[in-house]
Structure formats: C-alpha cells, structure tokens
Amino acid sequence: MRARAEVDLAAVRDNVRALRARAGNAQLMAVVKSDAYGHGMVPCARAAVQAGATWLGTALPEEALALRAAGIGPGQARVLCWVWTPGGPWREAVEADVDVSVSALWALEEAAAAARAAGRTARVHLKADTGLGRAGCQPADWPELVAAARAAEAEGTVKVTGLWSHFACADEPGHPSIAAQLASFREAVEHAERAGIDPEVRHHANSPALLTLPESHFDLVRSGVSVYGISPVPQIAGPAEFGLRPAMTLSASLSLVKKVPGGHGVSYGHHYTTPGETTLALVPVGYADGVPRHASGTGPVLVAGKWRTVAGRVAMDQFVVDLGGDTAGAGERAVLFGPGDAGEPTAEDWARAAGTIAYEIVTRIGRRVPRVYLGELPADREARP
Ligand SMILES: *Cc1c(COP(=O)(O)O)cnc(C)c1O
Known about the structure:
Layout: E1 3-8, H1 9-23, E2 27-31, H2 33-37, H3 41-50, E3 55-58, H4 61-69, E4 78-81, H5 90-95, E5 98-102, H6 105-118, E6 122-127, H7 142-155, E7 158-164, H8 176-194, E8 201-205, H9 207-212, E9 220-223, E10 248-253, E11 256-260, E12 265-266, E13 272-273, E14 278-283, E15 300-303, E16 306-311, E17 319-322, E18 333-337, H10 347-354, H11 358-363, E19 371-374, H12 378-383
Parallel strand pairs: 1-19, 2-3, 2-9, 3-4, 4-5, 5-6, 6-7, 7-8, 8-9
Antiparallel strand pairs: 1-10, 10-18, 11-14, 12-13, 14-17, 15-16, 16-17
Helix pairs in contact: 1-3
Bound molecules: pyridoxal-5'-phosphate (PLP).
C-alpha cells in the first residue's frame, strides 16, 4: 500500500469509556462530523455506541442521514445535526428520527412544515448564542424563538428535546468568556423553562469543557476530538494525562531511496540543499493527501528508526526526507504520526510544525488515503456492507 491511515477502533472505544467516566451523570455525544474528523464516520460511530455513547452528533443533515442509512437506528443512538440552510432535508431528518438544531425562526418554520408533511413530530434543539457569535439565537431574539417553539409544540409539530449552546474559548480555562457564557446559558434555559419548555437535555460542553470544566456538563456533553484520542488542550496536558490514546496512525511506503552529492537542491523552489553527500528518501504522500504544505521544512517523520524532517517543500503527491547517510529500502515504512508510543511523531507534533491544531491535521487526511480499521468487533465485520 502506498499509504494508509490505520484507525484503532479499540482506542475509540477506550476513549469513549474514559470520557464517560469524566462526564459523571451526563450522557455522552460522540461528535462524528466530517467523517469522524477524518477517521471514518460509520466505523467510529459504531465503536462509540458500543462503548456507551448514547448520542451521535454531526454538522450536516446528510451526515446524520448517512448514520441512519448505515443501520444505526434510533434505538441505538440519538442523532443531532446542526448545520442547516433553508431548503435542507428537514423532512428526511424528521422521518429518520434525527434531532435538528434550530437557531432562528425560519428554521423552526421549516422543521414544523416538514413534520406536518411527514405526519410526525420534529425533535428540535433550540440553540442559544451565549457568546460564541456563530450559530445560535441572540438573547434579544430568544423570547420570540421560544414562544414560536411553544406554539409549534401546542400544534403537535415540534417537541423541544434540547436547549444548547457552544463555547468560544473552552480550550483556554479561566478565560472570562467561559463564565459569561455559562451565565447566559442558564438565563436562556430558565426563560425557556418558565415558558413551558421541558427539554430532555441541556448541553454546552465540547471536549475541552468536558475535560476541564465539570460545571458545564449539564445533561449531555459533546465530545469530538477527544473521542479520537487527541487532547483539546495540548498546552495543558497530552492525551495520556486524560486517559486518551490517539486512534489514527498515518504511514507511507518509501518509494525511492538514493544517494545524492552535497549541495543538491531538494524539491520545488530548492528550499533545502543537502549539506553533504547523503541519502534522500521519497515519501509518496503530499498535500493532496492532507499533508500540510505549511509543514514544508518542518514536519516530522519516523524513518529508519529516527525522526527526520521534511526536506524542502511538501508537493501534491510526495515529499523528501534527508536520511543523513543512513540507509533504508524502498517499501520501508515511514510513519508521519500515530499515538507516539513507538517513537513516532503525533498529530500534535504536525500541528505545531504546520502552525495549526491537531483537529485540522487528522480531519484533512484525504480520501486518497485508505482507512484501515484495527480492533473491529465481530459485529462490525458483519455490519460492513
Ligand atoms: C465540532 C463541535 C463539537 C465537538 O468539539 P470538540 O472540541 O472536537 O469536542 C461540539 N459541538 C459543536 C457545536 C461542534 O461544532
């Protein structure tokens, strides 16, 4: 195989168990949007449910519908999706028992219309903007949205199953916006409950809040990156300190190893020049595979027992490492990142090298890289199409 991303489903299950233990009495939603942050949505969703996640979260309704189409039924997991646009598949979501997020009147109206057409009740989570300034209803507009939701409940088209919001700075514990958002959320919940809303779940916490802020747990926590074993607060603690293990290992087979003389320019732009006679190894993955071009000259790779650094630019399909005179054979494995326990770099190391966050490193691993699942349970193999 040219390249592969191994995904350890046993790690996903163990991470979910560790997160549930931290969540106390709150239920756990495994966020599996964007193909489970690049790890593969359906296998990871199944693993999370096996380990006790009772909710699955997606951004797009299409992602939520794909979970249902894969056979993850409402008896196994509730599914919430939150990125809607007018004309979206509201009716399909209602018919598939998918909970939908509503931040504005137009969305409530589309959910209610879909429910009327389907002859069912839409399950709606009203989202408050408690300070993130992204999705969610502003405090000034909240009473109107709540009143409209109560009217739709009276009509029987809508049931408000959730009240929720999302943090701006949960990855910076102590940031003043955190307390302000919690206070705003409590007010929004109190207002809705006084108006007669009786939600099943109130939820505000993402991975960093789950791990660092117990008072944000409410009835449900939404855990994304931590399910895949990545620390959401790497400046405070690595995954092991939270009982987590990175699930993805990205590796490639060397496609060429050759001797070159000193003073030889390497890759586009010649941003690296060999300091003396040396061996170069060609790693056949590039930015088309999600290896960040921003890690040109900085990205770490385990080759022939040592960390090497990307020499020169990352190209679309390949990059070069200087083995400094060491030898390696074509076909030998180069490990870009993994859990880090066998001497390889981690996605966090790549994030630092590329000036980004580990979330982006794993999520952007391209479709051209096959996912290979380890730690599948027999039930997964049977369920696989
Ligand atoms: C992506 C997302 C999450 C998960 O965030 P993590 O930091 O990965 O745990 C939770 N809630 C919302 C609304 C999201 O968009």
